[in-house]
Design a protein that fits this description.
Layout (H helix, E strand, L loop, with lengths): L11 H6 L1 H17 L6 H14 L3 E2 L11 E5 L2 E3 L13 E6 L1 E3 L2 E2 L2 E6 L6 H27 L4 H13 L4 E2 L5 E3 L6 E5 L16 E4 L2 E3 L5 E3 L6 E3 L5 E3 L2 E6 L2 E4 L7 H4 L11
The chain binds magnesium ion (2 copies).
The site of one magnesium ion has 5 residues, from loops.
Length: about 280
């Protein structure tokens, strides 16, 4: 993935324009959540996400990535990110990460959620995968909460890694990062979802970033499959991926890809998001 550098801090007017694509991204993932279950194909998830985004006046921004022709990525079990949706039929117990983004009036949202499908015959497997997804989502919220009080962007990765470590033995994928987001889905700066030495850019008004931890039940190493897109764990362990786009503005932070700006996810962490005025 390549990064553009149009200046990483947005103006208040630009921040306002990022609210609508964030909400539409959330609506597309809501539509996926409403139909996902065993027996559904990843292609059907893609279709409902595309319909939702177009009905809302947006464009699926994954289609703007050269060579990619779909609205979502659907990464199942040992797949981490960039799984291509199609004829794959979801099975009971599958752990499915769905990544999606909408562009509206030239501005972007980017968000991912992980779903663990029911399997009454394998409760232990389902419980283990649910815990993986929970730890990953919690790590995302810890990273976002850290952003709210951060001086530099590296504090996000410190918080993500610290939380994952506190919950047990997991792998944190380092081959992919979060990113700035704005007129392009992928912009500077990179957002590391793990501890790094450098401090990174200053966190101040106008910074908008996608935070997106990828966590596994085994090792952190990944491999790209022969389709040139799908990224899977080398050791075959299961993976989860959660992502939100977050704006830092004059009043505080606002998660553009959450309907409540992140209020429910951040409540336990003592951070109250503030709408972009
Ligand atoms: Mg994404
Ligand atoms: Mg992203």
């Amino acid at each position: 993935m390549s990064f553009r550098r149009p200046g990483i801090y947005k103006t208040p007017d630009e921040l306002r324009l990022m609210v609508r694509p964030g909400v539409l991204t959330a609506e597309a993932l809501d539509a996926v959540a409403a139909i996902i279950r065993p027996g559904v194909t990843t292609g059907e998830l893609d279709a409902v996400a595309e319909r939702t985004i177009r009905a809302g006046g947006g464009v699926p921004n994954f289609m703007l990535v050269p060579g990619y022709r779909h609205t979502i990525c659907a990464s199942v079990n040992d797949e981490v990110v960039h799984g291509i949706p199609g004829g794959r039929v979801l099975q009971p117990g599958d752990v499915v990460s769905v990544d999606c983004g909408a562009e509206v009036d030239g501005w972007n949202g980017d968000s991912a959620r992980t779903f663990v499908l029911d399997d009454p015959d394998r409760p232990d497997l389902v419980a283990e995968r649910r815990r993986l997804s929970e730890v990953t989502e919690e790590a995302l919220w810890h990273g976002i909460a850290a952003l709210a009080g951060a001086r530099h962007l590296n504090e996000v990765g410190d918080a993500v890694e610290g939380h994952v470590e506190s919950r047990g033995e997991f792998g944190i994928v380092e081959d992919y990062t979060g990113h700035g987001i704005g007129r392009s889905m992928h912009e500077d700066p990179p957002v590391f979802n793990y501890r790094v030495k450098g401090r990174g850019p200053a966190v101040r008004d106008g910074l908008v970033v996608a935070v997106e931890p990828m966590v596994t039940l085994g090792g952190a190493d990944t491999v790209t499959r022969d389709d040139d897109w799908t990224v899977a764990t080398v050791d075959g362990s299961d993976a989860a991926h959660w992502e939100h786009s977050v704006a830092v503005h004059q009043g505080g932070i606002w998660v553009t890809t959450a309907h409540d700006g992140g209020a429910s996810g951040l409540a336990a962490l003592g951070v109250r998001p503030v709408p972009i005025a």
